[in-house]
Amino acid sequence: MSDPTEANGTAGAETTEAAGTGGGAGRRHVRVVLVDDHRMFRTGVQAEIGRTEETCVEVVGEAADVDQAVTVITATRPEVVLLDVHLPGGGGVEVLRRCTALMADAEQPVRFLALSVSDAAEDVIGVIRGGARGYVTKTITGSDLVDSIFRVQEGDAVFSPRLAGFVLDAFASTDAPPVDEDLDRLTQREREVLRLIARGYAYKEIAKQLFISVKTVESHVSAVLRKLQLSNRHELTRWATARRLV
């Protein structure tokens, strides 16, 4: 897990120095924060979106969980945030919620582009409803990702081709399902735990799959049961099955 302060200072200094050397006139520039809980993935993204003759994507900070993300984003005020959907501490939706509240009066908008391995309907709709300007999957090429970043910076809505039609249908259809207020009470991580519990996974298996401790799984399950006013995992499974979350 990276130190957001250290990452911000290092990335910003190196890229700013690079941007100031030879032939930079007319180059498109954007300041970006990377939010993903896998350091190697963040490193790979930086390599893919690095400076070219025509563009300069300046990574001014990194974060690996919700608290780090909120701290770095509010401190650096980037133009675009590349945001993973599944994060320790509540997920991308929680980052959006907290940043929106903290930066409501900001003159310069911070725009969010979800970058996730997931193409699940609830993940896509959740972050778009939370305020993200787009959603692309991690199969995207480096050049397409750079293009998406600049389009989001300019205010466009950007989606991976396979998701675009689905998103339009979900938000424009007159028979789209209503907002589930019970489900919306849960954080992204609680939804992940809920789904795995409903599929019959043991606590140890869930902990291994989500890279968290068994104790943390137990805490999430308790929170889910309390918020949904359920008594045990059997009731929870029935609840999830009825909503087709399994």
Automatic annotation (TrEMBL):
Region of interest: Disordered: 1-25
Gene3D superfamilies: 3.40.50.2300
Domain HTH luxR-type: 179-244
Coiled coil: none
Biased composition (Low complexity): 1-19
Keywords (A to Z) from UniProt: DNA-binding, Phosphoprotein, Transcription, Transcription regulation
Superkingdom of origin: Bacteria
Pfam families: GerE (PF00196), Response_reg (PF00072)
Protein name as annotated: Response regulator transcription factor
